[in-house]
Amino acid sequence: MRNIKITIYSVLMFFAFSCTGDFDEINTNTQGFESTELSAKFFITEAQYKLYAPDRYPYWRAHLIHADRFAGHFTFGHNNSWWSDGLAYNYSGGYTDASWGWLAGYFGNVKSFMDLTKAGGEFENQYMYAMGLITKSLYYQMYTDTFGMLPYSEAGIEGNLTPKYDTQKDIYKGIIADLDEAMSIIGSETRTGAGVADVAENDVYCGGDLQKWKKLANTLKLRIGMRALGATGDDFASNAISAALNAPLLDAGSGSVTMEKDIIIGQWGSAAYGDVWHSFGAGSDWTMGEILINELKNNQDPRLSIYAKPAVGGELTFEGTGAEYQERLDFLIASLDNANVSYTSSVSGDITTLNVDPGQYIGQPTRLNGDIYPLVKYDLFSTPGQKINQKTGESVSIYPEIILTSAEAYFLQAEAAVRGIGSGDAQTLFADGIREAMKLWEVSDGDTENYISSQDAANISSGTMDEKLEKIAKQRWLVSYTDGFEAWAVVRDTGYPTELAQGVSNPVIFELGTLNGAYPQRMRYGSGAQSNPNFSQAISTQGPDLQGTKLWFAK
């Protein structure tokens, strides 16, 4: 993150909000800051990184325990883990409260920045205010797609401690209005100002490039429009989509919007997967989801060796008796066969021995229960690639957080073309999306072009509409690797990958949980939500406060 030290901005924030007088009246002090040296730019960094790289406590609970696993990217439940892979499919108030607390509590970060930069604010700057509007929109899209109805239109109004819960439809419409306002403010401007008024490198999303912010806003508008399209009572999506398609989107020229992480800051202040992986001994060892690994492997996707490491393999023994033990063992062996894993097996009495060739990519089935736990050998499955589980604080490059990708912009345009909404050639747009997706992980041009030209997964020039939409959805799911909230939303919205969306049914193998095997559609509200008297109306409108209640866009 350009080696920005977050602690500096924390000190500046404390200094600014501790002042009760006019900044212009601050006396010149060679040991401190002059009024001419202060700017809202010093308050944007924390608001940005806290949305995509919160402290480790919520990162572990909101991302890894919930969204990233609901997305089918990562798994628990092997014999080296502290938990079964049923964790989060059984409702946990503590883990849910941690997730709710982070997202509900984040609002103050972006509101404070917008209050500083709005007309009449201490650091009035309309272009920084526009950046605040877009950041607020990114936040609310993630927030509502996680829980559904939320306080939105009345949130942050001084003196209103019980804001109403808005429907997801109205939140989407409000986000689009905010994005339109932000893009109108930016216009043709490229910077937020000169000197200290230029947000520059303090902006860890776009480096102060207002035109990239504008493309980010328009691409988010397209995402929301496409997600809302066809939902019950939708009366705005088509217009939003058409408007977005006729304005600049993130593309190959702008690249994706990602957030590089400071490789010096420790895990407690700005978490990364690597820190969680390395912090709890054996309990930190997660594995890769079977559906993800098989999708990459079956289509010779060059991202496979970047996303994951090969399984250790070797000699693995299984011992037990009884019908359920045998059913579980047969299930694991069948999953190896389905993935074309190379191994040999032998049986001696109650002991089955597998010799699994090393160097193979093998995914672990998702949502396994605690009873199968002893059979799920850690060395049998792939783990995340080096860039994903690299610890921070070691001055070694780690993966960037995804804000919104140029790949998704192309995939959304391809989907619109397939649906007959937008112009352009769907296959060309789809291929361009794949190119941008590969760039995120530094795949070579040669490997990228070979994938596009040789793999059916990269070809939507023929087939039914449903077949084309499935391929687009899967590419959106793949490019959202490490962005579990968005990958989870893609599955709920599109129904792909089907193996995830259909849920599970066999209690001998899987954790049916409080969902009774259904795919999770949302997270439950945290315990603080019930104190708002409007909460009961939200439940009456949206449906029961359960993980299986579908949100508006997915109905």
TrEMBL record:
Superkingdom of the source species: Bacteria
Residues of the signal peptide: 1-21
Pfam families: SusD-like_2
Keyword terms, alphabetized: Signal
Name assigned to this protein: SusD-like starch-binding protein associating with outer membrane
Source organism per UniProt: Lutibacter oceani
Phylogenetic lineage: Bacteria, Pseudomonadati, Bacteroidota, Flavobacteriia, Flavobacteriales
